[in-house]
Structures are given as C-alpha cells and as structure tokens.
Design brief:
315 residues, 2 domains, two-stranded antiparallel ribbon, mainly alpha, MetI-like fold
Length: 315
C-alpha cells in the first residue's frame, strides 16, 4: 500500500517537470526575441521613425536653414494638390513608372528565356556578363554617355539617322520625347539585372515538365504561357514590385540629364522634393510631397498583392 507521503511526492514530480518545460519554453522565446531584436531596432530607427517623422513634419511649414516651424495642418497638401505643376509631376512619375516597368519586365523575360535556351556554356557566360554590365556601370557615367548619344545636334544617334536620310530625333530637347528618352536609358541599365534573376528561376523549372509537353507536341507559345510563365511567376512578381518602387524613386537620371525640363516634362516626385527642400528651402511642401510618394508606393504594393498576387503560382 502507498502511504500519503509517497502519493504527495509522485504528484509533485509532474508539477516540477511542467515548471521546467515552461522555463525552457520561456528561455527559447526570449532567445528568439533576442535574435530578432537587432533587426527590429534597426527597422524602427531607420524606417518606421523616419516615416512617422515625415508625416508629422508635413503638417508644419518652415525653411531648412531655420529652426522655426509653424503648424499649418493640411495646408501643404491643399497647396500641392491644387498646383498644376505638382499634378504634372505626379503625371510624369506615373507615366515614367508604367513605361519603365512594362518595357523592363517584358524585355527581361524575353532575354532570360533566350539565355536559357542557349546550350553553349562559354557563350552563355559571356552573353550574361555583357547583359549584366550596364547594371554595374555608374549611372553618372551612363548619363553622360547617353547625353552625348542623344544630343539633338551633334549626337551619334542623330548622325546615323541623318546619313540614312531620316530626320533628326529631338530626344531630350523636346517635351514630347524627353520622358521616353529617360525611360530608354533606365531600361538599358536595368534589364540585365532583372533578366538574370528571372534566368535563375527558369533554371529551377523541372525538365520533366518540358519533356511531357514535348511528347504531346505542345506549341512553344502555349508552353511559354501555360508552363514557363506560371513557374517563374513568383520571381516576376517580386521583380515587378522592386522595379515599380525603384521607378517611383528616380532621381539621378532626371538630375543629371534634364533637371526636370524641358517645360517640366521630366520632373518627378523625388526630384520635386529635392528642389523644394534644398533649392527653394521650403520644407513643408517637400515633406508633404514625400508623404504623397509614400502613399503612392504603399497603394501600388497593396494593389499588386491584391490582384497580381492571386495569379502567382507557388510550387
């Protein structure tokens, strides 16, 4: 027979085990939080805090060289959204982003598919290096070269067009062609980077899928749209979001090649923010324009995930 003392000691042992397990789980949780803490701190300091400070500062007006700030509420936003020049800036940014992302993604997919079909390893490596080279070239150097190539009078491209008996193309000199000229420069610079990312996704597609399609004599166009494109859709979706965010942040090419001209035809949101903050010394409109840019990027990202994210095929 068991005594009452033995029963008490046996009941105490499971309780001790539970306490040990709880302490062990708590230690694991604390260790996990400790590992994540540096990333969370950096995110708060360099991303969340600047965003909140930007929104707060957009409600004030003042100059960069003065500490005096006057609370004006939403007056900065009202001035911007009723200003025809700012509305033109938004229009330029949206058109630039649409053209750049569309051309870049289509060309990147086509180049990646072409590279993936090549069977000579050495030639493939040389081709990939040549396509990726524009991405690592300094944007300042590339802008200077393209300014010479696109010069409406003595540019190399117009010299060739003249010898062929064609008229000169205005490129950066005309409000009707300046924006598309900037798009051409950035497409040339960024296609190689995105094509190599998509090429990596193509090389991860199981070959037996293509073998089954070949046995059924499936046309190549149908293979591309029914097999290849769905299989690389996660990478295409990711690169599209990155390219869109990058296109809304364009500054270097505008600053170096056009300074927002001619006739405000290439002025974009980031360059507009730079002008008002550091050229005109007006922080209020610059901060408000920064918040509008933040809203644009946030809304586009939500739209991408809401509509395009449903069509992404995850293996």
């Amino acid at each position: 027979m068991l005594s009452f003392s033995n029963v008490g000691t046996q009941a105490a042992k499971p309780r001790k085990k539970k306490k040990v397990k709880q302490k062990y789980r708590l230690g694991e949780q604390l260790a996990g939080y400790g590992l994540v803490a540096p990333a969370i701190i950096l995110l708060c300091v360099f991303t969340i805090y600047p965003m909140l400070y930007l929104i707060y500062s957009s409600l004030f007006d003042g100059k960069l060289i003065s500490k005096k700030r006057n609370f004006v509420g939403f007056e900065n936003y009202e001035k911007l959204l009723t200003d025809s020049d700012f509305l033109r800036v938004i229009s330029n940014t949206v058109v630039y982003s649409i053209l750049l992302v569309a051309f870049t993604m289509v060309l990147a997919v086509l180049v990646a598919v072409w590279l993936n079909s090549k069977v000579t390893p050495r030639l493939n490596s040389l081709t990939q290096a040549a396509i990726f080279t524009p991405h690592i070239i300094s944007l300042v150097s590339a802008s200077m070269v393209f300014m010479w190539l696109m010069d409406p009078q003595i540019g190399f491209i117009n010299s060739i067009l003249t010898k062929l008996g064609l008229g000169k193309f205005p490129f950066l000199a005309s409000p009707n062609t300046a924006l598309i000229s900037l798009v051409m420069v950035m497409v040339w610079k960024s296609v190689g980077y995105y094509s190599l990312l998509i090429l990596a996704a193509l090389q991860n597609i199981p070959p037996n899928i293509y073998e089954a399609a070949a046995l059924d004599d499936t046309p190549k166009v149908r293979v591309f749209f029914r097999i290849t494109l769905p299989m690389i859709s996660p990478t295409v979706f990711f690169t599209t979001i990155v390219a869109t965010i990058s296109s809304f942040q364009v500054f270097d090419t505008v600053s170096l090649m056009t300074q927002g001209g001619p006739v405000n035809s290439t002025n974009t949101l980031v360059y507009y923010i730079y002008q008002y903050a550091f050229k005109y010394m007006k922080l209020g409109p610059a901060m408000a324009a920064g918040v509008i840019l933040l809203v644009f990027v946030l809304v586009l990202t939500i739209i991408y995930f809401a509509f395009l994210g449903k069509k992404v095929h995850y293996q």
